[in-house]
Structures are given as C-alpha cells and as structure tokens.
C-alpha cells in the first residue's frame, strides 16, 4: 500500500472471522519501524471492537517503509505460526526527496560559483580601475615635471641674466621686491609663532598668494619649501629665547608653536647640530 506524505494518519482493521465466539479472540500486532515489541489485544482492550475486530490507529507517521504484522488466536497459548503482513509505503513530499536534495546541492554550488565569479570580476575591475588611475597620475606627474623643467630653464636663464647684470652693477643679488616679500613673509610668520596650527595654506592666504606660487617663490629665493621656511623661523626664535630668557624646553617649544617638545628637540638638533638644552652652553663655549 503506497500513500502520499499527507496520508500518514492510518487506521488498520483486522478480523479473525470468529463468528461463534468473537469476544474470545485475541490479537497480536506490530508495525515494524514504530512498535519495538508485539502488542497484544483482547476483549475489553482499547483497540478491540465489540464485534471482535481489531482496530489500530497510527498518527503522523513520517515518510518511509513500514511492515504491519498481525496474528489472531482463540486460545491464550495458541497462535498462528505465520502472521498476516501488510507493507506500507508513505512517500516523502517532493521537497524532501533525493531529487530535491540534489537540486538543493546544485543550487548551493551554483550560488557559490556565482559569488566567486562576481567577487573575482569585482576585484579585477577594481584592480583595472586602480591601474588606470595610477597610469593617469603618472602621466599627470610627467606633464607637471616637463612643465616645471621648462619653467625652471626659463627662470634659470632669467636668473643668470639678472645675476650677471647685478654683479656687473655691484648691486645686492636680491631685488627690492624680493627683499620686501621675504621681510613681509617673515613678519607674518613671526606674528603667528604661538599658533601651532599655522600652516602653509594660512601663510599663502596672508600673503595673498596661491600655494603653488608661494612654493615656487620660496624655492627660488631661499631654496626652501614653505613648511621648511615656517619651521626655520620658529627655530630661530626658539634659539633666541633659549639665550635670552630662563625658560624650560617645553615652554620654549610652546612659545614658538611646537605642540610636542620631543619633535621640537628633533627639529632643533637637525638645524643647529645639538639639543636645545645644549645650545646655550655651546654658544658660550664658542665665544
């Protein structure tokens, strides 16, 4: 007997055909896979009907194969040697069949393969985009370098002509305009020495110049970048404070705009060749 997964509530009936004394009939039954032992039924039992028929119910049987066996006797100690058997098959729902599980496995593999493909494709496109950006940046840097080289050659030629002219006239190498510019730049920085966040951007704004123009101007006149220019003025003021005032290294660093005394000491030593604490003694010994 084959049943679908939703036909798993069963009632099985069996009659020994004992019409003379139906109440003396005894039954033994077992549903292999559910009942571990033989179940015995007699008159007055729950599964024994008044007409002597055995009625057994099973509810919510899981999908699978079962074998129902039953035997009858009209004597307590005499049973038929062989039992009547009924094979029962309850089919699983389609989503629990082997085919369904195989489809599930294939779907998981396909999803994993698709995920790997999408990840690799995303990684490849990301790498290609980054590579294109790097190539573009390299081209831009190359163009800037070429432009700077051309401008440098022009400025060099102009500078040589001006230098030759000044030397021939015996004048100062710095033009009045350049000297005035440097004086103004130094004054602006000195007015903001106490401010540790005073930056190249702020200096360029105070001088009414763009950062690129300021950079080129200071490189041309002093061979120093704007950040080096600001740091040099800070350190020069620090050297004067060390010689003129009785301050600790931390206090000196704060007065010239260094938020870290260790970084101040490092920069000071790079410029003067000694630690701030040794500077006054070195000056005294040299004189």
TrEMBL record:
Keywords: DNA-binding, Membrane, Transcription, Transcription regulation, Transmembrane, Transmembrane helix
Listed transmembrane segments: 101-122
One GO MF term attached to the UniProt entry: DNA-binding transcription factor activity
PROSITE patterns, sorted: HTH_ARAC_FAMILY_2
Any Pfam family matching the protein: HTH_18
Domain HTH araC/xylS-type, chain residue ranges per copy: 183-282
PANTHER family linked: ARAC-FAMILY TRANSCRIPTIONAL REGULATOR, HTH-TYPE TRANSCRIPTIONAL REGULATOR EXSA
Name of the protein described by the UniProt record: Transcriptional regulator
């Amino acid at each position: 007997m084959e049943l679908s997964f939703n036909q798993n509530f069963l009632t099985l009936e069996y009659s020994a055909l004992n019409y003379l004394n139906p109440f003396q009939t005894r039954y033994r039954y077992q549903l292999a896979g559910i009942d571990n032992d033989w179940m015995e039924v007699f008159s007055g039992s729950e599964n024994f009907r008044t007409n002597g028929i055995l009625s057994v119910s099973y509810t919510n049987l899981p999908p699978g194969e079962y074998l129902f066996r039953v035997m009858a006797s009209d004597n307590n100690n005499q049973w038929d040697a062989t039992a009547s058997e009924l094979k029962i098959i309850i089919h699983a729902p389609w989503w629990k069949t082997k085919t369904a599980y195989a489809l599930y496995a294939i779907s998981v593999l396909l999803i994993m393969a698709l995920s790997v493909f999408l990840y690799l494709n995303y990684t490849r496109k990301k790498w290609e985009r980054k590579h294109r950006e790097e190539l573009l940046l390299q081209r831009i840097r190359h163009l800037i370098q070429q432009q700077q080289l051309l401008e440098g050659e022009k400025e060099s030629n102009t500078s040589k002509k001006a230098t030759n002219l000044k030397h021939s006239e015996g004048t100062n190498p710095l033009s009045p305009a350049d000297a005035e510019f440097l004086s103004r730049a130094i004054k602006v920085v000195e007015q903001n020495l106490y401010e540790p966040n005073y930056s190249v951007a702020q200096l360029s704004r105070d001088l009414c110049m763009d950062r690129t123009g300021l950079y080129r101007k200071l490189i041309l006149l002093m061979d120093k970048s704007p950040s080096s220019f600001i740091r040099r003025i800070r350190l020069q003021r620090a050297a004067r404070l060390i010689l003129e005032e009785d301050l600790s290294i931390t206090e000196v660093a704060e007065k010239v705009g260094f938020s870290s005394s260790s970084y101040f000491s490092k920069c000071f030593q790079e410029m003067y060749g000694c630690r701030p604490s040794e500077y006054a003694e070195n000056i005294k010994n040299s004189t």
